[in-house]
């Protein structure tokens, strides 16, 4: 498994993804700097918020790209046949691809997180904010939450690759899955606010979202940016349940992907 994982890692590196990550890091830094300059109040908080949103969006696309590069193209080009000719099970092959993408995403989170943190540390401050940002352990927890969020999206994309015969279907549906899972909790909180009981949105959307939460993970639970933006105290039980949810969902998706890949006939 580790040899296949290292091969997947090398394939991801050779795909010029690191060059793209460095270019994206520069873009994220520039956008965060612009956000700080256009904000009249709490510029550091606004800049960090915009930067974290950019990291989540960019690395989501990179995760889907790496899944397509490491598994989708192997199936499309039939190079998977040569791998399966060796005494390696399809489940081991799939898990090795997941671990390779997870390692690439960890590198991406580290590079972009360090770049954004360096900008925030060097950002000129014209006045002291009432709630200063935190770039220590709280910021590290925020980046960990982003990485776990991306792992769930990666596992879902691998499941789609294991059953899809259309090359770009995992990329398209992966984007919709990420959008739906990340907005599920926020949408439910909005509909359950006081005063929304008799609204049209509550009447039609709430039953749909209540059903969707049994199928989709609430990835908004992994968005811990408030710890760094506003210096809120860490609620370890809440974070622990969110991590458990992410790992359990990854395990479920990878199990389904392995089951489907084992039964798929390649022609």
From TrEMBL:
The keyword Metal-binding does not apply. The keyword Transcription regulation does not apply. The chain crosses the membrane at residues 20-40, 46-67, 102-127, 139-165, 171-192, 234-259. Keywords: Membrane, Transmembrane, Transmembrane helix. PANTHER family: ABC TRANSPORTER PERMEASE, SLL1107 PROTEIN. This is ABC-type transport system involved in multi-copper enzyme maturation, permease component. The lineage of its organism: Bacteria, Pseudomonadati, Pseudomonadota, Betaproteobacteria, Burkholderiales.
